[in-house]
Amino acid sequence: MNQQETTDLFNQIVKDYSERLYWHVRDMVGSHDDANDLLQEIFIKIWSALPSFRGDAQLFTWVWRIATNETLNFLRKQKVRSALSFEKISNAQERVADDPYFNGGEAEKLLVKALNKLPAKQRAVFSMRYYDDMKYEDIAQIMNSSVGSLKASYHIAYQKIKAELKNNSIDF
Amino acid sequence: MNKRPYTTPDGYFDFLQMRLSQIPEQQQVQETPQARVSRWAKITPYFALVACFAFAIVAGRFILDKTVAQPEEDYVTLEQLYSADLLPYTSQYALFDEDYYQGDDYSYEITEEDIINYLINTNVPLNYIGQTLYE
Predict the structure, then answer these.
(1) What percent of chain B has pLDDT over 90?
(2) Residues A50-75: pLDDT tens digits?
(3) Residues from chain A contacting residue B21 (CB–CB below 8 Å)
(4) pTM of the model
(5) Taking CB atoms and an 8 Å cutoff, what residues of chain A touch B24?
(6) CB contact, 8 Å: B24 with chain A?
(7) ipTM
């Protein structure tokens, strides 16, 4: 791929996937500001990796994999930073209540809080399935996992959220 | 597909696409200074490495020569001894071996003059010769 072809492909990826990638990242990090910053880093990574894209994987799953890995790295670093600064991670989870861009009802607030309590990878799988209605085969390629283990992961996440909502008398 | 319970600032995605589209240009500007490195600049570090090795070898050789090699005067002394015609150089102890001088071919009586010549050839100071012989 020459420079012009790479630039054209990159611009096509921005046009087709930037909005969907934003929501995917937002589901995992929970905050608009974090998602906004992270998206810039993700697309810089995509630009750097584009010359090595051989086309043996779907472009969509390739882009999603980069975005998911970068977001998981961000969350890992955030966890370390929280531990070192003695800030409770649950404070980040409680932030949904103060989020100015949150426009859901009480049930949805509890759902998002319950989601934020899940481990990062489980949250990613649940979000891709629940919000994006993605096929397990595509999620398996993105997460580099098997369809069977993903179905199990989704089922466990679903049960945890259901239990959390039931504690607050909400049906899920 | 279930609806997400959050929104974004107005016009966010239009601005997002515009901002992300500038990434190739920004990255190319960052990468360009590296592309301008000349060939000479690339191979200079290797020349420096070779020069360091060469200096280390030369310096090490110089130091070894100064500390390990015998002084030149020792070689001179030995050469003078070898060239002395007083004794055939077969055994350094032949001088004290009476049997060695039996027979016509090897009979040789050492005179005082021989001894003095030997001492002079081996750079023994003259005053020492005088002291030793005539005490």
Answers:
(1) 21
(2) 988 887 778 999 999 999 999 999 99
(3) 11, 14
(4) 0.62
(5) 6-7, 10-11, 47
(6) yes
(7) 0.79
Closest alpha carbon to A104 in A50, A170, A15: A170
Beta carbons of A26 and B5 less than 8 Å apart: no
Domain boundaries, chain B: 13-68, 72-134
CB B116 within 8 A of CB B110: no
CA atoms of A108 and A106, how far apart (whole Å): 5
Chain A residues whose C-beta is within 8 A of a chain B C-beta are 6-7, 10-11, 14-15, 18-19, 22-23, 26-27, 32, 36, 39-40, 43-44, 47-48, 99, 101-105, 108-109, 111-112, 130-133
Give me the sign of the Cα torsion angle B68, B71, B77, B79.
positive
Partner residues linked to A126 by β-bridges: none
Name every residue whose Cβ is closer than 8 Å to that of residue A15 and which is 6 or more positions away in sequence. Answer: B17
CA distance A119 to A125: 10
Contact: B24, A48; criterion CB under 8 Å:
no
Q: pLDDT, tens digit, for every residue of B79-118? A: 666 665 555 555 555 555 555 444 455 556 788 888 888 8
Could you tell me the fold of the domain covering A3-167?
Answer: Rna Polymerase Sigma Factor; Chain: A (1.10.1740)
